[in-house]
Amino acid sequence: MRFDEAYSGKVFIASRPDWEEADAILYGMPMDWTVSYRPGSRFGPARIREVSIGLEEYSPYLDRELDEVHFFDAGDIPLPFGNPQKSLDMIEEYVDSILEKGKFPLGMGGEHLVSWPVIKAMYKKYPDLAIIHMDAHTDLRVDYEGEPLSHSTPIRKAAELIGPGNVYSFGIRSGMKEEFEWAKENGMHISKFEVLEPLKAVLPKLAGRPVYVTIDIDVLDPAHAPGTGTVDAGGITSKELLASIHEIARSDVNVVGGDLVEVAPVYDHSEQTANTASKLIREMLLGWVK
Amino acid sequence: MRFDEAYSGKVFIASRPDWEEADAILYGMPMDWTVSYRPGSRFGPARIREVSIGLEEYSPYLDRELDEVHFFDAGDIPLPFGNPQKSLDMIEEYVDSILEKGKFPLGMGGEHLVSWPVIKAMYKKYPDLAIIHMDAHTDLRVDYEGEPLSHSTPIRKAAELIGPGNVYSFGIRSGMKEEFEWAKENGMHISKFEVLEPLKAVLPKLAGRPVYVTIDIDVLDPAHAPGTGTVDAGGITSKELLASIHEIARSDVNVVGGDLVEVAPVYDHSEQTANTASKLIREMLLGWVK
Amino acid sequence: MRFDEAYSGKVFIASRPDWEEADAILYGMPMDWTVSYRPGSRFGPARIREVSIGLEEYSPYLDRELDEVHFFDAGDIPLPFGNPQKSLDMIEEYVDSILEKGKFPLGMGGEHLVSWPVIKAMYKKYPDLAIIHMDAHTDLRVDYEGEPLSHSTPIRKAAELIGPGNVYSFGIRSGMKEEFEWAKENGMHISKFEVLEPLKAVLPKLAGRPVYVTIDIDVLDPAHAPGTGTVDAGGITSKELLASIHEIARSDVNVVGGDLVEVAPVYDHSEQTANTASKLIREMLLGWVK
Amino acid sequence: MRFDEAYSGKVFIASRPDWEEADAILYGMPMDWTVSYRPGSRFGPARIREVSIGLEEYSPYLDRELDEVHFFDAGDIPLPFGNPQKSLDMIEEYVDSILEKGKFPLGMGGEHLVSWPVIKAMYKKYPDLAIIHMDAHTDLRVDYEGEPLSHSTPIRKAAELIGPGNVYSFGIRSGMKEEFEWAKENGMHISKFEVLEPLKAVLPKLAGRPVYVTIDIDVLDPAHAPGTGTVDAGGITSKELLASIHEIARSDVNVVGGDLVEVAPVYDHSEQTANTASKLIREMLLGWVK
Amino acid sequence: MRFDEAYSGKVFIASRPDWEEADAILYGMPMDWTVSYRPGSRFGPARIREVSIGLEEYSPYLDRELDEVHFFDAGDIPLPFGNPQKSLDMIEEYVDSILEKGKFPLGMGGEHLVSWPVIKAMYKKYPDLAIIHMDAHTDLRVDYEGEPLSHSTPIRKAAELIGPGNVYSFGIRSGMKEEFEWAKENGMHISKFEVLEPLKAVLPKLAGRPVYVTIDIDVLDPAHAPGTGTVDAGGITSKELLASIHEIARSDVNVVGGDLVEVAPVYDHSEQTANTASKLIREMLLGWVK
Amino acid sequence: MRFDEAYSGKVFIASRPDWEEADAILYGMPMDWTVSYRPGSRFGPARIREVSIGLEEYSPYLDRELDEVHFFDAGDIPLPFGNPQKSLDMIEEYVDSILEKGKFPLGMGGEHLVSWPVIKAMYKKYPDLAIIHMDAHTDLRVDYEGEPLSHSTPIRKAAELIGPGNVYSFGIRSGMKEEFEWAKENGMHISKFEVLEPLKAVLPKLAGRPVYVTIDIDVLDPAHAPGTGTVDAGGITSKELLASIHEIARSDVNVVGGDLVEVAPVYDHSEQTANTASKLIREMLLGWVK
Fold it and tell me: Is the pTM of this model over 0.80?
């Protein structure tokens, strides 16, 4: 006889016990081997699950409870330490298996490079895919000091795959001049500094389209998310990020998957970052999984 | 010969030396034994006092100095560890003794359950009492996994005692669906997410009435109060909370007591939460004790 | 499909999947509501499991691997916050159920009071039970400021139940004068300051007897276990504690159960205490479960 | 052969290798010996340099790159521990040497008292100097418990030197009543609580004048800068402070020098304060050095 | 009515309420302005008092209780920030007043320079004074980068005052070559690395003499005292330091005063250093005050 | 004019300014991308340099000063994030260049895998090379979950290259059963748990031979080195590790290079691990570079 699993931080609160019957799959991608600054996001998913026991299952924002969403927390994909290519292959293969069954994939990073194989999988299924990207950083580098597999490159790879015009970035406040110029020249949308107001303007344009939403926790100001690899002042509040998630939920876009990446617990003694991430995951589940 | 007491964190800065001649009594309720998540608020009052030495005695918000308020810091009530019922009885008895002498009680928690015996004492003296409650959480549970004495229940108990229509909650962003429904069905006021603006609308209705104000520090966003048991993203700023205290001070309500609870220092290495709490206590003293 | 459970900190490394076929049961007692100083040990068991992923399954001390021991990690008993009596009853009942099936109970605290109901259960099964107790503190109080259910009282209760002459305490370096005197007057064994050498002298006397071993992590010097409620300088090293566990394993006593209590992770940013505890649990399993 | 200096945190990112050919000099003033509360700002400059490796060299706010600014990071002035007067003399002498060569001095504290000798040096060169001061505290004391050389006095000294009417303080939310009164009586500008809006009103009045800008990091709310000696709730966001720096950059004032003081890394485990400071330094360089 | 003072960390546990009738005076010297590395020891005395509530009043080492010692905790001397000379003068004057009344002075630092004025006062009263000094560092510099008032100089000053042959240093593992040579040439005793064994050899030589004992907490290995300004590997254990205090207590020397310095709480999140210091203070009181 | 570099933590204290004329080269290998548990050792070398300013340049153990050793701190090799193979190639190439000039290489990790390319370079120059290895872990795996480039494999690779009989491991207390067996079967020396005593027995056998010494900081007990990726209880003290370095220095072996790896500063708020590492580096320089 085993006691209630949630208490021991085993799975995200209110996870269903069975993969097959779930509508959405929550999974961790515990990889941080290509980060150029502070590592540690490999422990993000586990800590987000652990602190989820402090959450209520009801959202007063969306007036919906987690038991109205059938999701299954699959745990962390056992990625091979220090091998980026193999890690990305395993992620893509796993997301393929989720999509094959018509389930909604919701990923937790890990560094932002993990979004790249997910987007590849999504694009195979949804050729008219659009991406909503919330982040402090452009992530539009071709490589990082020679390495094409880097946490600074996923959005560039995604933009080249699905077309820069289908990528919408929000909250960006850091990047190389060349990255901003490339975006501009190639018709990619970048809203600098702000998220909610420009998002309101963009959402109607995406009505009816399949949209993948990737959120780097560092779109938040360091005050709201100190536990991440590369903090950058001047970000948005958790209130604005919650409102942005809700804005998407209430729009006419067809959210077909999402992720939340770059939570690195060791830099945040208070655990506020992991707690905030667990609340964001709850709202993503309640708002985006119909 | 003993040196200046404030330096050693002995009492809150500018405390008078004598209980009898004080108009207000500041007291600690170092109890955290019923909390369902992270304990540690038993050390809140002591740390708030300790860091008060970093405060100025003058408020540029209210243009008033602490020596214009005659208050006495009584220290912490020596509550018995692990015995909730006896702890609550001791608190009620102590607040009775304060009210008997016509003094203003200002309490520091400790978990939020400590407000329940205080409210019982207040209600005996002020039968037309109203409560202003600022918190991230509804605290309206009947019990917590079977325990009626829990930090999740004090506002429910208070509402049942003085009538739900006399309780006004602000900033609420977490609770069970049933709690929100109970409040609605029973005519209790809940302002979700915001504090200052809805408070401005409510205060005129309470003009002239005796009001007890209970503030859970987690009404603040975790960015502003990481040092608390249950952090919850999407909260208000310390600027808004200060303004709310001042709004009450300038209104026509008759504040007859108050408390600030749930400061748990161990989760906040920077001590910003305790520092913020000590500033809030100063403003409560300067604004509410006439 | 769920990924490897151990990675997400779900269960202690190498736990078997089935309660029924296990020879030993590892279980958590997440209670800290009666502690008189720093709370937080409720999170001990969960963190010990989480960091167990950093362990090797092989012990070079005992030349034995975890898969030679059939144990099942049952998770944490869902104890009611703030209700000591009910918590103790639930623990006793659970240990009864383990003993009924002839399995070896290995508990993780939580505060030291949790050992009291375990010992009650053990004594029902083993009337000639002896207790080996390693701790910085006597834990021989009758009550703590009036409360008989306190983390300062479990060994007194145990001694009164099974007879003081059957209790052997080691490493004690803190207590009231009355406690030491009571032990002396009642024929209870107390080795002050040291563990390994006096243990070597005592073990032959206990040969063949059923012995329950309760270890308070604070028997270690604070250098070796900063993450506990009441640190006390002058303790033993983790090397000595490991050697003591091995000494018992190699002796002729019949270890019938054990526990490791008072790990409070929040006071130890480096997580060395939880890591050390997870290694101690491994050695207890490998050394004591035949 | 020595590897890239920036990686090891040796100098601020993009510093030129040569003092002589630089247009601006970045220098540290590692002094904290007169602070009345929490020391530690002596390590501010070193940590700001170290974390600058996480910065991009391009500012999307100002559309300018660091290699367009010729600056040299001179390291820390080797100030004598515990000797305030000699420390101040060394700072003044060093800034004299910078100004003599027509370079722009940008200082990093250290406690706020270090700004006093800098201002003395500036005033010798610019007799019509005005000061923009952003801070939580007035810093207008004559002395602190008898000590005229204190981190609570630099703005008073500056005001008396260059005339109170030439000093503009913003964001002030703490001080003694006497300090506010002195400012008022002597025609010194103090904007309480806010920075950006009142700054917009003041800048046109200073058009064409040489202005020194001194920023105490504690003008930020503790949520945005926990790593400082005296945190004080109710401050501005890093977004507002960045916008204020940019507002000055785009105005018609002639910024002739500046500093950023009171970063005390030890109180901020996440290093967000040092990271924010390094971004502020980048924006000050890009915005103010023409 | 004020509650028990000890709970709020007001005074050291078991302090008597009255200066006049006390045999020993415990006092804090919260000064850290001349330290060359990490400041913060100004908060040492206050934190030591605060955590003393976790102590038992009985010592199983000495079989004595604190109520057998009549001591008074006088709080912290209000030293002027940043003014070393005036601070030292105030300390000397205060210790003079203690000695005048025939009481035993027990000081808590603060940086080690605070021992210098105490020793001056002691020497005035006891012309045949000897000093026992336990420390990681020689503290024999003439000055530190030109400053004669430095935390690196107190033992040199003391040795020059009372004669190097009357100073006995133990546990020393760091210093300049010149310092070790000066000691050797001038007949001062230095035991490198070890404390207990060489102390046993020295004590008989000091039988009957008045001895002042100054302990720098960094004589402990960083494992046992991480919370200090200058940690240095290879030190002794807290067990050895306790035994050394007891060895002195049981010897025939006449201990006439003592101090414990350099506890800097901010570097030790677990608070083990302050806890250890509070236990050391208890043993010094119980062992040295007859 | 640039101020003293050491103060800003730019280079290790007492580093010479010139590569060419140095006898020893100190260099960093900031790589942590293959670690299986907690990353962060990439910041080890930078932090060790930074805290070296707290060191004395004189060793009372060896009676020698750093200016008697001509060494140059080359900074960190700019390794490509997330690319293990290329990183190892760069390290090997750099060490080749050091050896070519007849200089002594002293490396700072980074994860332990960085020792592998160094040993390859050493072996090319010294075909009769022996290795002294101090570590908590065997590091003898063939691969880690399929990855041959892992921090768990360097000693296996080294043993296969130079012959297992030429590798001497000390202090080992963790590994898979297969690793211990492989060592035994292949004639490799492993001293479990202890370092100093078995080292004394081994050194005479290596007299006259060229020896490379690789030290994983986790050979220390977690009490002495909490700031590392994989802490493991039951280790040696820093006193024993210092003595072991000195034992080698005084022996007849010909130390031709060395390294100290796995310092991960983020897990050690007190910075004791980095401070200890900087002292170990000083002793290695003073003891091993003739």
Answer: yes
